[in-house]
Amino acid sequence: MALGAREDLGDARFVGIETLSDSGSTPDACVRRALTRGFDFVSVSVAIDEFATSVDPSTYPAKPLTHGDRALSGSEWSTRVVLRCSPEVERLAGAGDARGTRALNRELKWAAHVGAHAVAMNINAGDPTLIGRLLGSHVASVGETTRVWARTRMSGDKAFDDDAYRRWAATSAACDENSNVRAYLHITGAPKERREWERWLGERVAACALSVDSFVPNARGFPVLPKELQALVRAMFERGIQVVLTDYNESGVAAKKITPESVENEGERVSGDAAHSFRLYWEYLVYIFRGIEPLSEQALAEVPYRDHLQAPLQPLMDNLESVTYETFERDASKYIQYEEAVRCALLDVVDEDQEGTVMVVGAGRGPLVRASLRAAERARRKIIVYALEKNPNAIVTLQHLLVEEGWQEAVHIIPGDMRTAKLDAKADVLVSELLGSFGDNELSPECLDGAQRFLKPTGVSIPRSYESFIAPIVSAKLHDAVVACKDKKALETPYVVQFHKTFSIGGPKSVWKFEHPNHDGCIDNERYARVSWSHSEIGDISTTLHGFAAYFDSTLYNGPAGHVRCSIHPASHTMGPTGEPMFSWFPMYFPIRSPILIDSRSASSIEFVIWRRVDVHKMWYEWAVTAPSRGHVHNLNGQSYWIGL
Amino acid sequence: MALGAREDLGDARFVGIETLSDSGSTPDACVRRALTRGFDFVSVSVAIDEFATSVDPSTYPAKPLTHGDRALSGSEWSTRVVLRCSPEVERLAGAGDARGTRALNRELKWAAHVGAHAVAMNINAGDPTLIGRLLGSHVASVGETTRVWARTRMSGDKAFDDDAYRRWAATSAACDENSNVRAYLHITGAPKERREWERWLGERVAACALSVDSFVPNARGFPVLPKELQALVRAMFERGIQVVLTDYNESGVAAKKITPESVENEGERVSGDAAHSFRLYWEYLVYIFRGIEPLSEQALAEVPYRDHLQAPLQPLMDNLESVTYETFERDASKYIQYEEAVRCALLDVVDEDQEGTVMVVGAGRGPLVRASLRAAERARRKIIVYALEKNPNAIVTLQHLLVEEGWQEAVHIIPGDMRTAKLDAKADVLVSELLGSFGDNELSPECLDGAQRFLKPTGVSIPRSYESFIAPIVSAKLHDAVVACKDKKALETPYVVQFHKTFSIGGPKSVWKFEHPNHDGCIDNERYARVSWSHSEIGDISTTLHGFAAYFDSTLYNGPAGHVRCSIHPASHTMGPTGEPMFSWFPMYFPIRSPILIDSRSASSIEFVIWRRVDVHKMWYEWAVTAPSRGHVHNLNGQSYWIGL
Known about the structure:
The structure is a homodimer.
Chain A: E1 15-18, H1 27-36, E2 41-45, H2 74-80, E3 81-84, H3 87-94, H4 98-114, E4 118-122, H5 128-142, E5 147-154, H6 158-174, E6 181-187, H7 194-198, E7 205-211, E8 216-217, E9 223-224, H8 227-238, E10 242-246, H9 266-271, H10 279-290, H11 297-302, H12 322-329, H13 332-349, E11 355-361, H14 367-379, E12 382-389, H15 392-404, E13 411-415, E14 427-431, H16 444-451, E15 455-462, E16 465-474, H17 476-484, E17 495-496, E18 503-504, E19 509-515, E20 527-533, H18 535-538, E21 543-559, E22 562-567, E23 588-598, E24 606-614, E25 618-627, E26 643-644
Parallel strand pairs in A: 1-2, 1-10, 2-3, 3-4, 4-5, 5-6, 6-7, 7-10, 11-12, 11-14, 12-13, 14-15
Antiparallel strand pairs in A: 8-9, 16-18, 16-19, 16-21, 17-23, 20-24, 21-22, 21-23, 24-25, 25-26
Helix pairs in contact in A: 3-4, 5-6, 13-14
């Protein structure tokens, strides 16, 4: 029975159980028992008698070492059962013992054979490289049917938990970050600082085993989670990560359950059925799950884009499609900012008795034309608008708008590229919406340099300036997605992404800024920047660097009449009239070829270098990590990715 | 409003309308009108005034050449509207005129810009290579957003329609069989012979325009389709192909509608609304659609496998998974045949007072053990069963079955490979289920040659023999699927496929046969065969050869007690007890690198050569087409595909 009806939280609505009292039962008996108690799946031991599996697995034992497969259907195995390896076999295999390794392989192969939902192996002992090799070798040989859950731990002890995180990172590195080997986080206590657990949100976490140990009794004696673990479980649910309730800690030691005196726990007393005594815990999870804020309509629409890599647009080489314009036009918050910026600019630059000239360069299907006309009305300025557009399909729409909106007098359509179009008029205000998620990445500098010849000496550009920002992140999912492209170029391409399973190792730092109009004698739009995050900025925790998040913050206009911004920087994100964030831009993700462990014990800092390069045909970025260790330069000479001019 | 609620027929439940009376209306007006009349989408002209589009498209005309895009949302454009190119522009472009080509490109680009469901272009005039290049160039530049429907025709005149088919094949060939360029079959009359239209079932057909011309009045004066077109429409619906009702023929000439006197067609008379007068035609399509037999449970389960390429198993190199055994065991019809074969064999080979020995080689999870025990009971023979199995996971299940089914006395489990296992017992009956879809393709010959040392001199093998068959087919969808793999190896690999959008150019012909036990002094399992289909066998129609279908027909047992077969040959397919066909095997598909036009005018025959080759490590097939023209040998030396021994 699911925790709730919400489907946007994915598999998080299904809860599993892992209890000592299941020992010795067949998987089908455990499944039936769990289902009647409200749970959706069980975690059970693969072996009937765990020591039996440590016999020499190269011979055929007389008795079967595991329960039969036919009592459950294939679909039940794949949705209802997680198989656990035997502790003694895990210990021997983790120590490199050959017989233990063969026995572990037999257990893993059995789990794959029946098609279990996952097979769980403890990685808290033994050599992470040996274990990572074993798990990687297994998942590579069985394909994508059965995932491996690598059981790691979180106890609330900072040093202990940091060690567990590094063991996980080492295991994952040994199997080359195989996306079918995921962490199974066994939680027995709450960390003191949020960042200690938040880093896991960027890792490949399959599920959390929540020990009854981690609960505390509330005033009425009912089991509840400490505040920090409530936040953790909520954050996991929001990322579709399942919870398994368990009555022992990760060393296999039984934990005592909390039973309020007011509750007659007849079930357990009478039947000895431990699953029943989990009821209060399960109900508490239902309470947490159902308490999660429903998503706004806009956030729901964005669910498919979470952690989904989008190749950046080629705005000059390709013409936008109608549906892309439609999507952009839907973001009221952005055009409210533009309207306000044009209004302030008109007040400052155009006299009341003059006729102002506004030039919209890249008019598309007209949203900035509309915003400019509205701004003029509010500013009580008479204006004439020139709408420059290079896309012949968008011009059809502009032509229709002229008639439909009665714009014939006020608006002139000029077909052509703003860098080369011929036009005698000069503008008081040059309005454009050429910004990309990283500010300059859609060639706004090059286009506006070309268009500024249309400006009067007193004229202004909207936007007036934009600044680019970079932040280091943990994001195994994005790294996996890039690797899955099986193309070296994919590892050297920045993507537009709605971040979801991501953790910020350090806050965004500015790399460079562009201003318009640019009156430099010789305009140079190449850039170079070096930014770093010190050990104290990172905090005293180990993390895995998977790449960098990128943002922009723009000043649309700044003058006596007002200062109008437009930003997707997390600290200054532009909000819309209904309190929803502006959604026209997702951030960008700059991947790195191999994840890098940022080890808290060596007090490492992170340093990042980035270049913006331009030649006659194209613009591209190059980037490199130079600390904690010096890596190669990504996308050298634009070999993998560039934007055509 | 869909024709019915069935979703297994895909988009076929949505019907479009294309009517002369829509000329001059805006697309949104046409959509609104069509929706109120029961239709789901409209086919409308892209241009406001078709001659206006033939002006020089390198300049910007003062007035827009097409209706605006904003009156329909992106999702309405993509589901409700098919745009038609202008006839005059099509004519000029098809003749190679430069201005016409530019104008056509502008129309195609507009359709892609708005994201229309499709853009339709007539290919019945002009040079197919010029048109194919234009369409291929267009779809390659706009990506997968908007498909091209190439309008071709079917009038019922054999020579005329064969020419249309060849024009389609040439257009498709010119754009390198681009899967986003599909046929739009404009039907004005019924072919005399079924094969004239059935060949289209193997082509990339997006939709059929069904002209009211193609209907005839029934006794009550209502429009109905002639019998052959009823079958055609039903077959199209079954393949998810949509119908568009139209009131003109493919040359643009208006067709007269059938109006029974009993129906007061007030709508049309009063409002002049032609859509309304389509009502009786639409209702007739509802009748046809709803009359299609619902799929059986088994057929429904197979829907996802239709035209879906499955890589063949590697039965010796890989161990089967539990769920694969589970699927196989579900096919009662197969084990009924096996049980009957063992029963007959026991009657013929084992005396009543003897204890017979049955050896199941490759026992898996025990279905043949069970069938053998049942057969013995029915034959009143006492038997002992040896169950040989190499998969250690399957042995676990066999061990449990021994206890659960009380088989301890009668069944001995022997772990190991049948080719090398050590065992002193000798069998009266050697039972195996090693057949693949092509008979020998899962190495049954090599395995049984190895296992026959367990047979008594009087012993028999079940199966006793199996024969392999090959048939030439039209199947653009399968060819597309192979090409989509973007790997040369994919074009040289045979696949397991449930054929759906396929047309048999000629019936299956035998290529070779294997018999067991094989008492040849030196066993040679290599084979070579050459088969051909003459022009008269193909019939006097042009077709496109996309590869070959492959089947097996096996004699499980043949003796005094009976002859038991097991076959997936279309003419002798084994049926189950409930009248459903046996479903354990789908046929195979041998692709060819490039489709070949079989031109009826040159009275071509088809000749196919195939080799079965074996070395110490592997078995593979090589194949080539040698008529109508000699092609290369596919999979030479097993370079792309082989089965490991």
